[in-house]
Design a protein that fits this description.
Layout lengths: L10 H8 L2 H8 L3 H11 L5 H14 L6
Helix pairs in contact: 1-4, 2-4
Length: 67
C-alpha cells in the first residue's frame, strides 16, 4: 500500500501532461493512489505518441479513464 505522499511524475508523462492542461488539471485533483496507478500504467507506454494518446484520453474521459 502507498503512503499519502504525492508520487513523482516520470519526465515523459510530465511533458505530456504539460501539453494538455485538461489532463493536467484532472491528474492534479486525483488522490495519490490514483495518480500512482496512472503513473504505473504510463510506464507501459512504448512511444511518445502512445503516451500522448493516453493523456489525451485522460482529459476526455475525466474520472472514467481506464488504466
Amino acid at each position: 500500500m502507498y503512503s499519502g505522499e504525492k508520487p513523482r511524475i516520470p519526465l515523459g508523462l510530465g511533458y505530456a501532461l504539460a501539453e494538455n492542461t485538461s489532463a493536467l488539471k484532472y491528474f492534479a485533483e486525483l488522490s495519490s493512489e490514483r495518480q500512482r496507478e496512472i503513473i504505473d500504467r504510463s510506464r507501459d507506454m512504448h512511444s511518445r505518441a502512445e503516451l500522448r494518446s493516453y493523456v489525451r484520453n485522460m482529459a476526455c474521459l475525466g474520472s472514467d479513464v481506464i488504466i
